[in-house]
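Cont'd.
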Amino acid sequence: MVVAEIRVAVRFHAELARFAPHGSQRASAELPDGARAADLVARYPALAQRRIVIGVNGELATAETVLHDGDSVDLLTPMSGG
Amino acid sequence: MPNGFWNRILHVDLTADRTWVETPGEEFFRIHLGGRSLIAHYLLKEVPPGADPLEPENVLVFAAGVLTGIPFPGAGRHSVGAKSPMTGAFGESESGGFWGAELKHAGWDGIVVHGRADKPVYLWIKDDKVEIRDAAHLWGKDTDWVEDALRAEHGDRLVRVAQAGIAGENGVRFALVVNDLNEVAGRTGTGAVMASKKLKAIAVRGSLKVPVADNTPFRDTSRWVIDTMEENHYAFHHFGTGGNILGKHLEGHLIVRNFQDGQWTPEQLQAIDANAIAAQYREKMDGCWACSVRCKKRVRDEAMGVLPKFGGPEYETIGSIGTNLTIDNLPILMLLNQRLNVLGVDSVSFGTTVAWAMECYERGLLTDADTGGIPLRWGDGKTVLQVLELVARRQGPLGELLADGALSAARKLGRDSEQYVVHVKGLEVAMHDPRGMPRMLENYPMNPTGGDHTGGSAHKTSLRNTVGVCIFLGYDEPRVTELVKGATGWSVDDADMRTVVSRGLALSRMFNLREGITAEDDKLPRRLHEPLLKGPLSTSRIDESQVKQIRTDYYVSQGWHAESGLPRKSTLEALGIGNYAQYAAQFVWADEQPARLPPAVVGVAEAEERHAE
């Protein structure tokens, strides 16, 4: 049985860049069709205990947001000052 | 011999062309520790009520803290204060770099500048040798020219220079004091005060080591910062400020078009954030004195003439000039950042003032006749460069209109334009929108300096700005207490540190009350009570009753009268500053309670008890 997959682009901003694979701020991930943002975040165990902001295609998302093929996902920490 | 401080305050009377040394004693430093509290002491004591901030009766205070200049990360901080020409209120701003540590290494805890020279001068400090020198050759020159000239004059590349820029010379009310070319005491217009005294620069060189009672906490803290760099300071270490701006857009509280929108386009803002700077123009990261975090960007763009010595855009500049004015051209943004530092202009006040002008232009309230034919359109970075040069020199109708800040400009312009000024107490609000950040909702109305996000009314930042430690370092409250103990040898605890913060807040409050700034001024501007136009926060708004409740809670927590915000006599006495009532007697709530520390010091339980009173 063939499981349908989607591919999303992932960008790790600033502090989260250290958790990105291969030392790049940008990565791609393949997920099963119907995957949620939480499923993507679970691919990166270091993010599990962190408070993060998730964006999908430039809009605020939640862990339950369903991802689609070609989506662009941004992972960030909340900003407090500067 | 004291530890952590020298017991030496340098006084400079520029009118009388003389200097003297004050040795206020250990108890004075136990009370104040440095920074904000030291500034408040001198403003209350030395500035006559109602003084014009740009006249000789104002004083300008450079204040180190008891931790400034001790070799551990974050200790390269100093404060600059005066009665603010922006607000007429307590003025205070902090800076990093090397200058503050150098001042401490020269054997000084602070400098109080009085009066006004009859011609441009600069102050030369080499350890205990102090000279007021002629600065005719420095007046009207760019900051890098001035620093080079002073280093050449003294034959030492390690002379550290704090200076007022051309904007300060021209009386631009949001002119700042820049040190080391790329660090600034940015807010509240202290550069205008400095130049009003005809004081162009303070050049310092020191050879002393700050004595400490116990080096253990400094050694341990330095090691902790290095060992946990990836966990605690990764973003600062690799990107500096401004790497997470997209988060503000996603959450809907990005500063866009004079605080109207809350969102921009992800593509445009990611063209100018710290990730983009790192990828395209960053030459290296650099640090302040003794700091291993090294969060300072150094950028270069040969085509635009952008040089690393002027640093690189921090978040506040990316926000105030970039997202707020919708300028997505990174080279122009970097050049604007450089020109701000060359001219000595606060990026937050400048950006927010221009944003007000752009909104007024868009609404037809500000016309070409008012701007001298200069069109003010969102996103037009080249025009903003032109406007900056005009403002710094007060040239043309637009330069003159904007050089006193947005509130003053609106009052000159009229046409109901004041409703679009985003300010607190006359100081333009920084790049953190209280509609999306509860911490800033609590901070801005209560902040003694107005719309500043750093000095603040909060404990953590206030303490850091008093003892002389960077607010970016991930130190918890007990660590800061241990550092103060290590520096001074005093037996102090966390509650003592909270007491220090409450002292500084009470003294700055008394100064403000004396200058006519009252509870009515502890509020947000109209714009911040309006819903944002875009994004997830567009359906919510801050009610005025929320701010009033925050105000009351804050007064109570600080032991001030719940309605008027006058510090209670019983609170001042418990804080050990009852004697300061002599400088603002009418503005102390003369209760007959026994001396009692405020809830902000002793905890929530007592706060609830006071609510019940």
